[in-house]
Amino acid sequence: MTFAKPFSEQTVLITGASRGIGAAIAQRFAAVGMQIVIHYRDSHEAANEIARSCMKQGATVMTVSADIQSHEQILKMKDKLAQMNMIPDIIVNNAGISHYGMLSDVTEEDWDRVMNVNLKGSFLCTQAFMAAMVQQKYGRIINVSSIWGISGASCEVLYSTAKGGLNAFTKALAKELAPSGVTVNAVAPGAVQTDMMAGFQAEELDAITNEIPVGRLASPHEVASLVYFLALPESGYITGQIISPNGGWLT
């Protein structure tokens, strides 16, 4: 399907883009000079640093702070983007938090926080912006999930459950929006060199690496390349897919 707006003139919103995978995604889109919205919650200076990096590549960049657990704050973010004529053609629901520990030790507050950030936040952002995509008969929604949303992980029941829910959200919404020219996919990485891995000891990281056939962790930029591919106009026949770049860890 042909969309009137060239890819380089489209707008992409990336949640949780002040660091890690989100920052790498922003930089990948910046390479073609797109309009980029860098969302963050508290990391103001880190978000500005990524914004400056993207602008050096020729991108038009806006940073915006919002708690994605809050419907009210998401709507305020939407108003800000509308005022700047930066309603997204592409949404990358990347913001997420992890949780390690036995399920027997999990509190209700732990459960609510992990579900709200990883799952509810993606729902709220998608719901807020998808109407514009449906109206223009074109759009890309890309959810950043996890390998644990596919296979599950011991001592990561909350995180696995939230990402598994995100995968189901992806598949169901893809069917709902396909007639409107909007694709919905999820990228479910294996182990990636980000702050989420900072809680592991060196011997634990070595054990994980030894289980991965390619023998290393992924870089955030490798994940960003897949997100970028799914956002391209020529990827319009790919929808409802959970694609896991994991180095052969899970096949």
Structure characterization notes:
Helix 4 links the parallel strand 4 and strand 5. Helix 1 packs parallel to helix 2, helix 3 runs parallel beside helix 4 and helix 4 runs parallel beside helix 6. A seven-stranded parallel sheet has the order 3-2-1-4-5-6-7, sandwiched between helices. The chain has one domain: Rossmann fold (3-Layer(aba) Sandwich), CATH 3.40.50. The relative contact order is 0.14. The protein has 251 residues and is α/β, with parallel strands linked by helices. Its EC number is 1.1.1.100.
**Strand content bin:** 5-15%
Mean pLDDT: 95
CATH class equals Alpha Beta
Query: What percentage of residues falls in helices of 4 or more residues?
Result: 40-55%
Elements, N to C (H/E): EHEHEHEHEHHEHHE
Structural class: alpha/beta
CA distance, first residue to last residue: 32 Å
Describe the global form: globular
What CATH calls the topology is Rossmann fold
The count of strands amounts to 7
- The largest beta-sheet arranges its strands as 3-2-1-4-5-6-7
Low-confidence stretches: none
- CATH superfamily assignment? NAD(P)-binding Rossmann-like Domain
- Please give the domain count: 1
Count of alpha and pi helical runs: 8
Radius of gyration: 17 Å
InterPro entries: KR_dom, NAD(P)-bd_dom_sf, Sc_DH/Rdtase_CS, SDR, SDR_fam
Protein name: 3-oxoacyl-[acyl-carrier protein] reductase
Keywords: Oxidoreductase
GO molecular function, one term: 3-oxoacyl-[acyl-carrier-protein] reductase (NADPH) activity
